[in-house]
C-alpha cells in the first residue's frame, strides 16, 4: 500500500505549504514524521529515491493522523506529484532538511566520498559535529550503506588526503573542557616546526589535529599564535593555491571557529561567479538548528549585508523561500 | 561515609565467599552491585584504588540491601580488610572481573598505552571486541581518563606501531555479514604484493586490515589462501623474531579466529618458563562471558590437557580457585 494509489484531482502546486509544514519543525518533530511513515509502510524512507522520500513522508504522516485530515494529505501530496513544478534545488533542500541529522550527514558523506571536491564536506562532518553526532553518522552509514564511513573514505582517497581524512573521520574525540598547558606548549612547538619545514602532512602534525580534544586544540593554537607571532592558519597559507593546505585550514576552522568556516562557505557560494546552490543548501540544511545565529552574525559583520539579503539576491522562488525560512528558523 | 568506619572483630579470611558471590554473577548483575555502591556512596568506584573498589563494592552492595544482612556484610568486608591475606593476583582478577566490561577494557587500555609490551592488549581490545563494545570502551575511557583512547595511543606510539595501532583502535567497523567477492580478490592481491615485498607497514595493507569488516576480511583472507597457496599468517612469519610482524599476526587472529589467539596467549602464559599471571588474569576476566567455551576447546585440542588442569598445575590458592570458577563459568 502506498499513497500513490489514492484517487486525485489536478490541483495547483503549493510549495508554501511544504515550507510551512517542514521549515518550522525541529529534528525530533521531523523524525516523528518519518517514524509515522515507517509504521504506515513498514519500510525505511532512506530506501526510497530522494524526492519520493519526502512525498511519502508527508503522505504517510498525514495519512497516519486523524481521519478528517486525510483529504488534506491527499490533496497536498497528489497535486505535488502530478504537477512536478518543483525545482531540483528546492527538492534537495526540502529532502535534506527532512532527513534525521545523522542520516543526512551519512548521505552527504557518501556523496562526498565519490569525488575529491567532497573532501571539504568530509572535513565538515568530521570536525564541525560533536563526537556523539559523528558517531551517530557512522551508525547511520553502516545501516544505510552496509559499509563503514572509514572504509569508504580510506578506499576513495590517497596520499596526503588519505593521511589527513581517514584519522579525521575515525577519531572519537574527548569533549571535556580541560586543557593541559604544558602539552599546549610542546605541541604548538611541534606544529610550528613542521609548518616551518613545509611538512604539512607530517604524522605528528596530523596526530595532533586528528586526536586532541577541541579544548586542547584551542589552547595549543592560542599558544602557537602567542609564541610564534601569527595564527596557524596564516602560516598555512604559504601557497594559496595548494588544495591540501586549504583542507588543513578548513579542518582547523571547523574544529575551532565553525561559524567563521561556514560564513566563508556561504560568502564564496553566494559570490559573483555564479551561485553554488549545493553549498548553500548544505549549510542551511545542516546548521539551522546548530549555529545559524552565529553564522548570520559572522556573515553580516564580514560582508556588511545580512545573509537573508544576499540569499534573496542570489536565489528565487520556492528555493529562496525555503532557504529564508531555514535561515530564520535559528532565531526562534 | 564509608564502610571502613564500622566496628569490627578479627575474623579469618574467606575468599571462597568472594569467589562464590562474584564468579557466578554476569556483567549485568555485577553492574547492579556497582550501581548500589554509587547510590550508597555517591561516587564512582573507578575513582578508588583498585582493591578498595572491590571491598567497597561488596560492602556498599550488602549495606544497601536489607537490614538483617548488614552484619554479614561487615563480617565479610572487615575481616578481609584486616587480615589482608589476599595475594596480588587474586586481588587483580577479582577486581578486573568486578568492573563493567567497557571500564575494564578502558583500564587495561590505559595500562597498555604506558609501555610497548601493552601493544598486544591494544590489539585485543581493538580487534577482539564488537564495534559497539569498542565504542563503549572509548566512552568509558573519556569518562575515566579525560582523554580519548585514540590520542593516548597516538601519543605513546611511533613508527610502524603507530601506523598500525592508531587506525586499529580508531575504526568503527561495519558488522554486517555481507562480503564482496571481487573486493576480496583485489584486496587479497594487494596484501600478497605488499607482503611479498616485505612492505609490512604499507598504507594499503594497513587500510585493508584496519577498515574492512570482519566478514569482508574473512573473505579476503580465505581468497588469499586459495590464490597464493598459504595462509597470510604463515607469510607474515618471514622473520619470527620481528615484533611488528607478531603484532600484525595477532591483529589478524583477533579479527578472524579470536579463540585461537587467546588459546595461544594462555599456552604461552602457562608454559614452562614461569607463569605469566597477568596474561592469564586478563584472558579469564575478559573472555569468560564471551568465548571461553571455544577457547577451552581450542586449548584442549592443541595441548591435549584441559585448560583447567593446566591452570591447576601452574597456580594455587584463592587465585587458582577464582580462575577455575571463571573458566568454568562459560559452561553455565
UniProtKB/TrEMBL annotation, chains A, B:
Has keyword Secreted? Answer: no
**A Gene Ontology molecular-function term?**
calcium ion binding
Q: Does the keyword Iron apply?
A: no
Listed GO CC annotations: cytoplasm; plasma membrane
**A biological process term (GO) from this entry:** response to heat
**Which Pfam families does the record cross-reference, listed alphabetically?**
Annexin
Instruction: Identify the keywords attached in UniProt to this record, alphabetized.
Output: Annexin, Calcium, Calcium/phospholipid-binding, Metal-binding, Repeat
The residues the record assigns to binding Ca(2+) are: 8, 10, 12, 85, 272, 274, 312, 314-315, 320
Q: What is this protein called?
A: Annexin D2
Provide the species name.
Hibiscus syriacus (Rose of Sharon)
Amino acid at each position: 500500500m502506498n499513497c500513490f494509489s489514492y484517487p486525485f484531482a489536478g490541483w495547483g502546486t503549493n510549495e508554501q505549504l511544504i515550507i510551512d509544514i517542514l521549515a518550522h519543525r525541529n529534528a525530533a518533530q521531523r523524525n516523528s514524521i518519518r517514524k509515522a511513515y515507517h509504521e504506515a509502510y513498514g519500510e525505511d524512507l532512506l530506501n526510497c529515491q530522494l524526492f519520493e522520500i519526502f512525498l511519502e513522508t508527508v503522505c504517510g504522516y498525514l495519512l497516519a493522523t486523524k481521519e478528517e485530515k486525510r483529504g488534506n494529505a491527499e490533496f497536498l501530496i497528489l497535486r505535488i506529484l502530478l504537477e512536478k513544478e518543483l525545482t531540483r534545488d528546492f527538492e534537495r533542500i526540502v529532502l535534506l532538511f527532512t532527513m534525521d541529522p545523522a542520516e543526512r550527514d551519512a548521505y552527504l558523506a557518501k556523496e562526498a566520498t565519490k569525488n575529491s571536491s567532497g573532501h571539504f564536506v568530509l572535513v565538515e562532518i568530521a570536525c564541525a559535529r560533536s563526537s556523539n553526532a559523528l558517531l551517530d553518522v557512522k551508525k547511520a552509514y553502516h545501516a544505510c550503506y552496509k559499509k563503514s564511513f572509514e572504509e569508504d573514505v580510506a578506499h576513495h582517497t590517497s596520499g596526503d588526503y588519505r593521511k589527513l581524512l581517514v584519522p579525521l573521520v575515525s577519531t572519537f574525540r574527548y569533549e571535556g573542557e580541560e586543557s593541559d598547558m604544558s602539552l599546549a606548549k610542546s605541541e604548538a612547538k611541534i606544529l610550528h616546526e613542521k609548518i616551518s619545514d613545509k611538512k604539512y602532512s607530517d604524522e605528528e602534525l596530523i596526530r595532533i589535529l586528528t586526536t586532541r580534544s577541541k579544548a586542547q586544540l584551542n589552547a595549543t593554537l592560542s599558544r602557537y599564535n602567542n609564541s610564534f607571532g601569527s595564527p596557524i592558519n596564516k602560516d598555512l597559507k604559504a601557497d594559496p593555491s595548494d588544495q591540501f593546505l586549504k583542507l588543513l585550514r578548513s579542518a582547523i576552522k571547523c574544529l575551532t571557529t565553525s561559524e567563521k568556516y561556514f560564513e566563508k562557505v556561504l560568502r564564496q557560494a553566494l559570490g559573483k561567479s555564479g551561485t553554488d546552490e549545493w553549498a548553500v543548501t548544505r549549510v542551511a540544511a545542516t546548521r539551522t538548528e546548530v549555529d545559524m545565529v552565529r553564522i548570520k552574525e559572522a556573515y553580516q559583520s564580514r560582508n556588511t549585508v545580512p545573509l537573508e539579503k544576499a540569499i534573496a539576491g542570489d536565489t528565487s522562488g520556492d528555493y529562496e523561500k525555503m532557504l529564508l525560512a531555514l535561515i530564520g528558523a535559528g532565531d526562534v
